[in-house]
Design a protein that fits this description.
heterodimer; A: about 1050 residues; alpha+beta; Alpha-Beta Plaits; Barwin-like endoglucanases; ten-stranded mixed beta sheet; six-stranded mixed beta barrel; about 25% strand; elongated; B: about 220 residues; alpha/beta; Rossmann fold; six-stranded mixed beta sheet; four-stranded antiparallel beta sheet; 10 strands; globular; ABC transporter ATP-binding protein (chain B)
């Protein structure tokens, strides 16, 4: 009965019940959806975090980068200087490169993957001198008595007999030196096919008496007059190495003997004694069907043992125990090496993380696990291994400068194969074990110093910190498998969902407070009746709670049901919206290098948030109602003790007049009521103002970021890792976008000092060796900015250059401003090491030689301390007096960070390839924007969130202000009625209450405005204060007008 | 012709559930210098009658005339401000104004300056038998009888000759009731006020000069 009456008395207040049922339903729905979205995003992000692996490669940008097997001392120094990256926040694992070599019986590396394919150790016999024809110039007066001049289709021949004969000079062949063919050395035979005769001119060849006549256009430096000068080009036979027959192969990849071999002594000084047999160490540089060509080379640089030795027969000890047999064995072994790499997170090694390698069977060895390994398929096939089998290996020791020059050790290992990895080019013969295996210490080869596994969400931050710690010449590259781009919409959605959940909770509390107050707290009349009838307290409580439980329960249940039914669709829509809003454009970004992983998002949305939201709302409703039950019952309890009443200090006030007077007195003496309004106004308008200031702060930060960030970019190799030695035909084309400035390019040529170049034979082999020598020389780099220089392009740091007085970096772009009095001299910046080595000082002039421009007089105008091994010279690009077909590197700066998106679009339209796009062009464009983009995106997310939430919260706060003012005025109905009963005009009554509320509200709003303005310096906060005040005063005005419309009679009757 | 007159007055109002005919065809006249008691059972229409006389509303039919002018022809606010003063059972004092400020309020409505009103309030409070010390106090600091005297002082401050009292002794003990009645009686007999008291207290009604008895919205006596 009690419950029935309680329910009936509640639901019969139809309007109020419907209103609050709807409010509770909507809030349950909103809370449930907010929580569901939050939970979905959190779960999905968690799953994505598990699926994606972000790594940072730490590489030394050395001279031979990216050669993975280069032995570079500067890279080893960098490794020694590396900080402890494991302490960097966001780094979950830091491992330096650790790999060694091993051998396993029966394993042979596939063709093309062996390190010593061209090395040979051969026994050669029948060695004879070989001649080749070479040209030389001769003056007319120096021509011998007997000679032949080739001139067009005829030539003049002075025969042996002293007769001059003009002969038809080849109808078949042109009049070039190629037409003089060796038929059988040393005979030179002139073939005249038109006369069907063969003229023996071997005597001429021997004497070098065959000439081409030509003319060259010369200018007399004295008179400046030009003239044709006649010259003669002669041909002669010159010794060019040796030929022999291969008698025995101690080592060659093909292992053939009995074939002709051409022997180039190279720089070895090999001069065979006639008729002797020799054992040679060298390298194969040409291979024909019936002959081979080798160059005799030293065993290793600086080795004082001769790479050749004469022998009598194959029983000679040199065939059993010598450096030749040692090297033959080394090559044999090295060619079948296996590379064993250790890591505690094999799946995060670059080739695995980038998807080049993957498990085809089994699993990876776990961190610290010993006795197990994963192998590549080629090993598995050759050794017939499968998961669970055991592989036995002999660990080998590399020499310091050759990873494959294997020295045997007594370290043998047997590992159980737990995983088999696919076979990919460049990854043959690989074995992976955990760090627990403790591989033998090996020197660093290649340029990969180490690798950090990163927390996906803090990857960019971690890389920034790692970069700050990195020594000169070390670059950190982030590969996140596209996590940042994929997670961005979900993170944005999660933030929004958190906001919605928070706002819903606030709304739930506000509405439920009002609900409890109206449905329970204000039921004193009913409680009075029940108390007067002697109803027990428990039953009164039951009466009061039964109705609200039903109303709240039904509303919550419907809210939960609607939420559960619509959740899937709403979340799909939200995800779609978030993707459209927050899809991060990371094309061309250095934050989006490498392969991108596609992870399928879960389709099912959990239903528990609907249940939890319903329970939360229902329980909160019950708790608040129970709290207000106490209030309703307390009204009917006699208060103990005396009520303290404060006598007004001034007694009777005569201050003010009319409505203002009443408002003033009422506000001054209103007690808690006069405190509540300013406090509510202060808190709510302050909250809104704070949100506004925070959002404004984010906006300012974003603007400031755009204004103060300089975004650079460069052309790189396809994987985004190599910025130098590219061949860019027209890098300046990007300037057509109108969005880039400061395009820096460089072109380099090998240079040397003339005195440093050794003598090379003037023949094919000599030129070949000369080209090889030039290839090893340092570069003279012509550029228009130091940032693009190979020494500095990988470093964000500017070079510290010591300048000759009056010089600075501007000489690279405007050399004419600096070179007054230095006509014909190229100003250069060099390394201090080079200067010391060459004995030059700042301001000294020196002549360097380049193949392209010959001798170049240079003046050293600046010097820097090098971090690498290179001693390049840097000169202005405009000093390069030649057309440049291609540039080797290009770096540029965006005019404004605001142009970033448009520039990406431009690059896409112009079909520039993006880093990591292996199907695109080999050279790609990369923008160094990852930190900027991530920060801007985070700020954008907050700003959008605030833009979504602010109106909702503003409305919510406004409504709360409205309700508070409504309640405040409605609580004054009796005074209202008295005034009207005494004949006060409506205007005056309105003024009395409105002015009072306005004063109190403005007090709080102004205070919050002042405090926030002082704190933030943003006058914008006054908008929040004004907005809230408007809501409050609107509520107040509406309440006064509504009360005013009520009949005074009714008011007086019900005022109590 | 009385100071206040009811001519065939009917009053009907609609509640959420029913239409109520509170007064039906009432005709009555009230003169100055006399105390009238309006009696009747609960729901007989006493308070409704008083509200119409007080200008809180207009009759749905008939007229309420004050000095021969129908209230429907007047501005009710002005009528309430200048023609009638009402004393309520629950005193109806502004809780946040002092006794003096409560008494001064209707005077100020009529344009009296606060200073002048305060002087006059002092006199009126004395006149209803309250000490000067109460002037600076809030009504809640006074007893029921004292509050009712303040209400009477406020009514006197309105400077009208028609005084309407709705159960003026309803919340008071016998001694206080008698005191209040004697003040009202004195105002009628000595100062010429037309005092109309709505009461269900038969004893009090018997003391009045004239009694108007209502039953079911109609005058029965």
């Amino acid at each position: 009965m009690v419950i029935r009456n309680g329910i009936l008395s509640t639901v019969r207040a139809r309007g109020r019940t419907v209103l609050f049922s709807l409010l509770i339903l909507l809030l349950t729905l909103s809370l449930s959806l907010g929580m569901a979205l939050w939970s979905y995003c959190a779960q999905t992000l968690e799953a994505m975090d598990q699926a994606y692996t972000s790594i940072a490669l730490v590489e030394h940008m050395g001279e031979n980068y990216p050669d993975p097997y280069a032995a570079d001392d500067t890279a080893r120094q960098s490794l020694a200087q590396l900080g402890d990256y494991s302490q960097v926040p966001g780094v979950t694992l830091w491992e330096t490169t650790d790999w060694g070599v091993a051998l396993s019986e029966g394993y042979q590396r596939p063709d093309g993957t062996i390190p010593y394919e061209n090395q040979v150790v051969l026994a050669v016999f029948q060695i004879t001198q070989k001649y080749v024809q070479e040209s030389f110039t001769i003056e007319l007066e120096d021509l011998p008595e007997e000679y032949m001049i080739r001139e067009g289709p005829t030539c003049t021949v002075k025969t042996k007999e002293g007769m001059w004969e003009d002969i038809q000079y080849y109808s078949l062949l042109s009049s070039r030196k190629e037409d003089v063919r060796v038929v059988a050395s040393p005979r030179l035979t002139l073939i005249d096919e038109t006369r069907d005769i063969t003229l023996d001119l071997s005597w001429m060849e021997e004497a070098g008496n065959v000439f081409d006549r030509g003319e060259s256009y010369e200018t007399d430096p004295a008179t400046g007059e030009s003239y044709w000068e006649e010259y003669f080009l002669g041909y002669r036979q010159a010794p060019a190495g040796y030929t022999g027959i291969i008698g025995k192969n101690l080592y060659s990849y093909e292992g053939k003997s009995g074939v002709l071999v051409e022997i180039d002594p190279g720089d070895s000084g090999f001069v065979p004694e006639p008729g002797k047999r020799y054992l040679l160490h060298g390298e194969l540089y040409d291979s024909g069907s019936s002959s081979r060509a080798i160059r005799v080379t030293e065993f290793y640089e600086g080795c004082d043992q001769s790479p050749w030795v004469a022998f009598d027969n194959y029983d000679d000890p040199v065939f059993t125990d010598s450096i030749f047999t040692e090297y033959a064995q080394k090559y044999e072994l090295g060619n079948n090496y296996m590379q064993v790499e250790s890591s505690d997170y094999i799946a995060a090694l670059e080739p695995f993380q980038q998807g080049t390698l993957y498990l085809t069977d089994g699993r990876y060895p776990k961190a610290g696990e010993s006795g197990v390994c994963a192998i590549t398929q080629d090993i598995a096939k050759q050794l017939n291994l499968k998961v669970g089998d055991t592989i036995s290996l002999s660990m080998m020791q590399s020499t310091e400068y050759d990873p494959f020059a294997l020295g045997e050790t007594d370290d043998t290992r047997s590992w159980t194969v737990v995983g088999i990895v696919n076979q990919a080019s460049g990854y043959e013969g690989r074995i992976w074990v955990s760090r627990g295996e403790d591989l033998p210490q090996a020197p660093l080869f290649g340029y990969l110093l180490g690798r950090a596994v990163l927390d996906n969400n803090r990857a960019v931050e971690a890389v920034d910190q790692m970069e700050a710690m990195a020594p000169d010449g070390v670059r950190i590259t982030l590969y996140d498998q596209g996590y940042a781009a994929a997670a961005q919409p979900l993170q944005a959605m999660e933030s929004t969902a958190q906001g919605v959940t928070f706002a819903s909770l606030v709304g739930v509390l506000a509405v439920l407070c009002l609900f409890a107050f109206l449905f329970v707290g204000r039921q004193q009349q009913a409680v009075d009746v029940m108390v007067s009838l002697g109803t027990p307290r428990g039953k009164i409580r039951l009466w009061l709670l039964s109705g609200v439980t039903l109303v709240a329960g039904v509303a919550v249940l419907v809210g939960m049901a609607v939420s559960a039914a619509s959740m899937q669709l709403l979340i799909a829509l939200a995800l779609q919206g978030a993707r459209a809003l927050y899809a991060a454009d990371r094309r061309y970004s250095n934050g989006a290098l490498g392969a991108t992983k596609e992870v399928e998002l879960p389709q099912q949305v959990p239903l528990w948030p609907a249940l939890v939201a319903g329970v939360v709302v229902f329980v909160a409703a019950l708790i608040l109602c129970v709290a207000f039950v106490g209030q309703a019952q307390r009204k009917n309890t006699l208060r103990q003790g005396k009520t303290r009443v404060r006598v007004p200090r001034s007694g009777t006030s005569v201050a003010g007049k009319g409505a203002v007077r009443f408002a003033w007195l009422s506000a001054r003496r209103g007690g808690w009521r006069s405190v509540v309004v300013p406090v509510v106004a202060l808190v709510l308008s302050g909250f809104l103002g704070f949100l506004m200031v925070t959002a404004q702060g984010w906006e300012s930060q974003r603007r400031s970021l755009y204004d103060n960030t300089t975004i650079t970019g460069q052309f790189t190799s396809a994987n985004g890792r190599q910025y130098t030695d590219l061949h860019l035909s027209d890098p300046f084309q990007i300037s057509e976008s109108g969005m880039v400035s400061d395009i820096q390019v460089y072109r380099s040529y090998h240079y040397w000092l003339s005195k440093d170049m050794p003598q090379f034979a003037d023949n094919v082999h000599g030129q070949d060796r000369r080209a090889g020598w030039i290839e090893k020389q340092e570069d003279m780099v012509f550029l228009n900015g130091f940032a693009v220089a190979p020494d500095f392009i990988y470093s964000e740091k500017s070079p510290e250059i010591t300048w000759l007085e009056g010089w600075d970096e501007g000489f690279l772009t405007e050399p004419n401003n600096y070179t007054s009095g230095m006509e014909g001299i190229t100003p250069c910046v060099s390394s201090t090491r080079w200067m010391k080595e060459k004995g030059v000082e700042l301001g000294d002039q020196i002549s360097v030689y380049t193949e392209l421009a010959g001798d170049i007089p240079v003046c050293i105008v600046g010097s820097f301390t090098p971090w690498g091994a290179a001693d390049n010279l840097y000169a202005p690009l405009s000093c390069l007096q030649t057309d440049i077909a291609d540039y080797l590197g290009c770096r540029f700066t965006l005019k404004s960070a605001y142009d970033l998106d448009d520039f990406r679009e431009y690059l896409a339209q112009e079909e520039y390839s993006v880093p990591g796009d292996l199907n695109g062009n080999r050279i790609v464009v990369m923008l160094n924007d990852s930190t900027f983009t991530q920060t801007v995106e985070a700020l954008g997310r907050y700003i959008t969130l605030s833009q979504i939430l602010f109106p909702v919260l503003f409305l919510l706060m406004g409504v709360m202000g409205f309700v508070v003012s409504w309640l405040m005025v409605n609580g004054r109905r009796m005074e209202f009625a008295i005034m009207r009963g005494l004949g006060a005009s409506k205007k005056r009554v309105f003024g009395s209450f409105f002015l009072e509320q306005m004063g109190l509200c403005l007090m709080g709003c102004i205070l919050s405005g002042v405090v926030l303005t002082l704190w933030s310096g943003q006058p914008l906060v006054w908008l929040a204060s004004a907005g809230f005040a408007l809501f409050y005063l609107a509520g107040c005005a509406l309440a006064v007008r509504t009360v005013g419309r009520t009949k005074i009679f009714t008011l007086l009757t019900h005022a109590d | 012709m009385g100071v206040l007159e009811l001519r065939d007055v009917s009053y009907t109002y609609q509640t959420q559930y029913q239409k109520v005919e509170a007064l039906r065809n009432i005709t009555a006249s009230f003169d100055g210098g006399k105390v009238y008691a309006v009696v009747g059972k609960s729901g007989s229409g006493k308070t409704t009658l008083l509200s119409l006389l007080a200008g809180l509303d207009l009759p749905t039919e008939g007229e309420v005339l004050c000095h021969d002018v129908a209230t429907s022809q007047m501005k009710l606010e002005q009528y309430r401000r200048e023609q009638v003063a009402v004393i309520y059972q629950n005193f109806r004092l502004f809780p946040l104004l002092t006794v003096a400020e409560n008494v001064m309020y209707p005077m100020e409505l009529r344009g009296t300056s606060p200073k002048e009103a305060r002087e006059k309030a002092k006199i009126l409070v004395e006149k209803v038998g309250l000490p000067e010390t109460v002037l600076g106090r809030y009504p809640t600091m006074l007893s029921g009888g004292e509050q009712q005297r303040v209400a009477i002082a406020r009514a006197l401050g309105m400077d009208t000759k028609i005084l309407l009292a709705d159960e003026p002794t309803g919340n008071l003990d016998t001694a206080n009731s008698e005191n209040i009645y004697s003040i009202l009686q004195s105002l009628a007999h000595d100062d010429g006020y037309c005092v109309i008291i709505v009461t269900h207290d038969r004893t009090l009604a018997q003391k009045a000069d004239d009694i108007l008895e209502l039953k079911d919205g109609q005058v029965v006596k």
